[in-house]
Amino acid sequence: MAESTFSPKRLAREILRNRSATAGVAIIGFMALAMIFGPSFLPYDPNGMDFMAILEVPSWTHPFGTDAVGRDVLARVLYGARISMLVTIIGVSLGGAAGTLIGMTSGFVGRWVDPVVMRFVDLLMAFPIFVLALFLMLVLGFGIQPVIFAIALVYVPNFARLARNTTLAVKEEPYVQAARLMGQSNLRIMLREILPNIAAPMFVQLTVGFAFGIVIEAGLSFLGLGVQPPDPSLGVVMADGKDYFLAHPWVITLTGLTLMVIILGLNLLGDGLRDILDPRLRKRSMA
Amino acid sequence: MGFIWYLIIRLGGALVTIAIGAVFVFILMQLIPGDPAIAALGENATDENVAAFRRMHGLDQPLPVQFWIWLSGIAQGDFGKSITLAQGYPVWDLMVQRLPNTLFIAVYALVIAVVISFFAGSIAALRQGRMSDTAATSASILGISMPDFWLSYVLILVFSLGLGVLPAFGFTSPLESFSGALVNGALPAFAIAAPMAGVFARILRAALLETKRKDYVTAARSFGFRDTFVYMHYIFRNALIPFVTVIGVQVRYLVGGTVIIERIFGIAGLGSMMVDGAFGRDYAVVQACMLAFLVFVLGVNLIVDIICAFLDPRRTH
Fold this sequence. Notes:
The complex is a heterodimer. By secondary structure, chain A is mainly α. Chain A is 75% helix and 0% strand. Chain B has a domain at 96-282: Orthogonal Bundle (MetI-like fold), CATH 1.10.3720.10. The chains are: A mainly alpha, B mainly alpha. Chains A and B meet through helix 4, helix 5, helix 8 and helix 10 of A and helix 1, helix 6, helix 7, helix 11 and helix 12 of B.
């Protein structure tokens, strides 16, 4: 096996040295802390209505204001971000795992399997991504679980193509040949020799996948197909806000801003990880 | 000769993809829980009515026959009849009414994204490491991170409510008034364009920086060619290939954006029709929209391939 890129200590050191990755980790870290611990510092229940405080502008008592039934928007955003992130992480990871497995097998086995699988991957990648997700929601039904599966399925082709191409690149390496000569089974070679060596680009793809995955979740829930109210997700809170957006714009604006900051953090982290983990790019940037 | 063959092969590939796509969509539609007849007629429909409805829409036929009827209909421009949205109205007619709006917004957004990113990416690469590079690069990653549907509301807030310069709602069809569509479509188009512009600008910057270091560029400089000449003929031309290619990749995200954006701005396009179809369980409409979007993405990719073939004729061999 080639030297492992995944030594956590080395990775941490590299991240600190990379401006983009550091910024990404800082933003994501802050948002994660806010999501996990923030709600316990807020004296509000995300679904608790207060008809004495309807559509209040942002203030010290309600930093993000209140919505049409007097719910604290910050509490809803923090809980909503939890649900959005959870849905996205599970969905993209499922899709990533399935796609990696399919792509790796396709590239490793070759023969007739590869063109057939890749034809199908090409097809799925020719559908607009949000349109495909919307279509899958129709097939799977509306709600939180279908969103997870829709996000997973939408991401399968991206990961499958990447895994297949990187597998083709490492397949002929001497260590894979050696494992073959030792009579190891295909499954063992894929898991022990190929997977660790294609893990880095898959990992980068996962980070970038989270960034757009959360947009899909928010978009589907915004349309009313995803997470169902009164449960908050970032898309649900924005959908609430759109009804009285003209007179009370802060609900949707601040919720979307939170979403944007999360995506920005993920993108910065993805950029940084790509620089760190992709040796080809690193060589280029040093040249 | 090489180019014609290249084109034929690409076109054939796209047609095969469309055919497989039609099968894929048709099969998945069968997995949708619930009976479209019940969805259209309501829970209290009589058995006779349901049977009549099923006969009218061909739902009583075996699946392969249904598929064949659907496919041969499409080949003749007949996408079946709308089930719930506009009952009994041909889906094709609905699409013809709405397609110009979606095409207009998509192309408008694409043009905005290409123009912005062309300047941002070029400036960033030409002034690498300086303030303008940092500004363009930061703007790009901010743009990429903005969900387009949220950006729509921010744009309405700033340009319609705040400055009052652009209208937020009420889209005019480009067929009625092109200039009206340009004004009314500016905000939705920009909302879709901003994230794409960020992606394009980054790719162009990276491609320009990479090409700048190529040996043939050094050689051209050593011949004594002027900087502008080297840029135009040696650097830009080659850096344009990844730039154009990424447009083909990004079009997947672009057209997806129209789905929500059309609803926000009240544009009667294919995207909003598909959402309405999804809510109304109008399967004929959803099927047709899926195929239309598929054809659109493949069409753009075909154009991208052609442009790339012109930029780099070696591709056609």
